[in-house]
Structures are given as C-alpha cells and as structure tokens.
Amino acid sequence: MTSSAGSSCPSIPRRSSRRCCPAPGRDSQPLSALGDFQTLPLEIFQMVLNYLPVKDISMLSMVSKTISSRLINYISTSSGSRRLLLQDFHSPEIPGRKEGASILEHYKSLGLLLKRCTLLLPTRDRLKYVHKVLSGVSCFKLSGCASPLHCLGLQCYGVFLQILTAGWDELECHRVFNFLWELSSLARKVQTVVSSKPGSARRLELRVRLFCRAVLLSPWSHRSDSAFWLTRILKPWPMVNQARLLYIIFGPVSSLDGHVVWQKMIEGPTDESSLKGLADAIKLLYGTEAREWTADDVISLVDELSVVPQEWLMENNARLLLLSGNSICFTFMASKAVNGRAVELARLMVFMALVCEKDLYCMDWAVRMMQKVCKVFSTHWERNNFLQCLENTFAHMLMEMLQAVLAGEHEEEDGSFLNLFHLVNAQANFHKEILYVAMGSSSSS
Q1: I want to staple 109 with a disulfide (CB 3.0 to 4.6 A). Which of 54, 84, 185, 242 is the partner?
Q2: Helices and strands (DSSP H and E) totals, the chain
Q3: Three-class SS string for 111-178?
Q4: Is residue 232, in this structure, part of any structural domain at all?
Q5: 223-234 helix and 239-250 helix, angle to the nearest 10 degrees
Q6: Which pTM value belongs to this model?
Q7: 3-class DSSP state for residue 102?
C-alpha cells in the first residue's frame, strides 16, 4: 500500500504546479485575447485598422471578444466612421479603391463586419447599435436624398441589411421589419399614398417605391426571402390598399422623372415592360414561398389591381395574366367560370387571343387554356353558353373596330386599322388551332 501510494505521489505536485504557477513570460487573459495588439496603444491600433480592408477587419472581429469590443469602439469614432461609412452614392466607384470595386461591395463587407461584431447581442440591441452607426448617413433615409433616382444610398442600405440579417430566423426578421417600419415612419407615409388621390403625392409615392424596392425587396437572392418582405409590406393593409401599394411599388413609371404613371393601363394598350414588375410580384405571392397567401387572396388582389386607379382596358388585364404564368391565369379564369361570369370570361378569352397574336405567343396556348376552362363548367349548357359568348364577343369586337376604322381619318397615329388587322388574324389563328385539335381528335378516334 505504502509503495503504491508513494509511486503515485510525483504526479500530484506536477498537476498542481501547472495550474497555479504561470509559465515565465505568459500574460493574463486580456493579453492573450489581444495577442500582439496588447503592446500597441489604442491610437496606433486604430491607425492600423485604417489600412486594413473591411473584409480583413471583419475576420479580425472573430478572433476574440476583446478585439471585437475594440472594433466596436473604433467604428464609433470619427475616423472609423469616415473610413467605413463611405457616402459617395452618386458615383459608381469608391475613390481610392481598386478599379471595378463598387460601393455596393463595400457595404456588403460592412454588413458582415457589424454582423460579426454584434454576434452576442440580442436582436433589438443589435438593431439599435446598427442604427446608431448608420444614423448619420442621410441617403439611407426614406426622404434623405435630394436626388433619389441618381443615388445608390438605398441600394447600399439594402445589401447591408441583407448581409446583416442573413441566416436570422423569421421571428428576428419580423423584428427587423418592425424596427425599420417605425424608424422610417413608413406606416404613416404608406397610409398617405394609398389613401390620397393617385398622383397627388407624387414625390412621396416615388420615395416609398424606391425604399421598398431597394431596401426591402431587391437585395434578396431567394424567392422565399422576397416573398417574406413583400408580405410584410402588404399584409397590414386592406385589399384595396394592397392593390394600390402594389401598383406604386411595381407599376409603370415615367422615364423622365420616375414618377408612377397612373393612367397607363386606362388610356391604351401597354407593353410587357410596363407590366412585368406587377406580374413578377403576383407570381411571387402565388408561389409556394408565400405561405401567408391563399389562391383566393391573390385572385382578389388581381381583381382589385385591375381597377387601380380606374378600370383597366381588358387587353392590359389579359397581358398581365399571360405574364403572370399558367397557374394564376387558369385560376383567375376558373374563378369566373365557377361564379357564372361567362360573358366576362369570354371577353377575357378573346383579348388573350389578341395578346397572343400581338406579342407573338403561340396561339395553341390560348386554345389549351380555353379547353381547361371548359372543364370547369359543371353542365354542358354552361359550357355551350360560354362558347356562344366567345363567338359573339369576337363578332361584336370586329364590328366595333370596323366602325372605328370607317369613322376615322386614318392618320399615322390612329391605331384603329392596326387593331382590326390584329384581331382578324387573332380570330383566324385561334380558330385554326381549334380545327387542328378537332381534326386530330376525329382522326385518332
């Protein structure tokens, strides 16, 4: 027993000595946390940071909590702000940086730096700190820039927030939106533009559009993220205001001053470029990524949109549905079939054939869509009534356009003859595709 105990004794003092007596030259915990930077005065440490790329400073922030704290202090200094908060938003390049490096890339790196520096803080405190850092940048504010159409400020703010919040869960992103919603007084400003007469608050409409697109919507690379933020923007409002707000954010704008063109859908047929933004937003809300929207919600939104600010030309309705994709197009038309609105449905179908002819879509698409819609009707009578309405609509529209041609003076700007030409071709090609289907079915049987 004595011999055994004695043989184990030498290990005891060695372990105890290691724990209690630091090795020569070793420093306390703060020194090991700062490493070689411990020997530098704070002013010299901050001067070193001025020469490091933002990405390297971001990596440095992950070394230890002590260094991260020093970096947070550096960011708050006047020299740190000048170094990091670049504000040359009206030029595509950052002075003094490598050729081709953009200010957007700079703010992505800054977003990552602040993300890492505030990693251990609660979400609310992180947002307060970030706001404190960025509060001096006027171009990040909804109405902060005198020339918003020629400014990259909001885009930089958007990519900054994208990097900062990447990987955050949905609850945290809700807090981010609520924070921005209150910070920018966005709720009050949106209330103004959706309740005022269209165009009466043109400058505010433009700023709401730019802020929502650049800060909340455009930066996201995943559809699920875009759907989340668009839902946050729209859902607080009644459906009629949702449609108005959707038009403000995604509708056509003037190429001269960027203001929303409210009469575009009412005064005459428009082109695909004017409707693409609205169609993409509708597809986003109708997709599986937008969990808070049902098919009925989206159909109601499209219905409301078609009377903003007044009832659209049916051709523009048809073009929007075509651009929105097969699923939403069929669902919209099927809802009219189910609700017994055969006359409206027939008119819409004729204009879809006209749009296919004008925009060079395959006419067999329109015929296949008609076949799918016909299957929705519960009785043969309802289906036959719809087909009769369809033919009557073709005939009625042809007569209307012919009368317009005969009554017109055929000036160069007058599109009556061209519209008649397109409609005649649309009817011929539409019926040609129907004959192909009918003859193909009869030959196969």
Answers
A1: 54
A2: 24, 0
A3: HHHHHHHCCCCCHHHHHHHHHHHHCCCHHHCCCCCCCHHHCCHHHHHHHHHHHHHCCCCHHHHHHHHH
A4: no
A5: 130
A6: 0.85
A7: strand
210 Cβ contact partners less than 8 Å away, ≥ 6 residues apart: 148, 149, 154
CA 379, 382, 385, 386 dihedral sign is negative
Structure tokens at 10: 């030498």
> How many structural domains are present in the chain?
1
Can you tell me the distance from the alpha carbon of 336 to that of 193, in angstroms, rounded to the nearest whole number? Answer: 31
Tokens of 404: 């317009």
Please check whether residue 395 lies inside any domain of the structure. Answer: yes
- The answer, yes or no, to whether the previous bond of 236 is cis (omega within 30 of 0) is no
In a domain, 172, yes or no: no
What is the sign of the dihedral through the CA atoms of 282, 284, 289 and 292? negative
Long-range contacts of 322-326 (CB under 8 A, 24+ apart): 322/352, 322/355, 322/356, 322/359, 322/361, 323/272, 323/275, 323/276, 323/279, 324/279, 324/282, 324/283, 324/286, 325/279, 325/283, 325/286, 326/369
| 135: its two tokens | 């509060």
Domain span at residue 402 reads: 325-438
In a domain, 345, yes or no: yes
Please identify every stretch of the chain with a pLDDT value under 50, giving residue numbers as ranges. 1-31, 94-101
Q: How far apart are CA 387 and CA 346, in angstroms?
A: 8
The rounded distance, in Å, linking the Cα atoms of 185 and 37 is 43
Query: What's the pLDDT tens digit per position in 167-211?
Result: 999 999 999 999 999 989 999 999 999 999 999 999 999 999 999
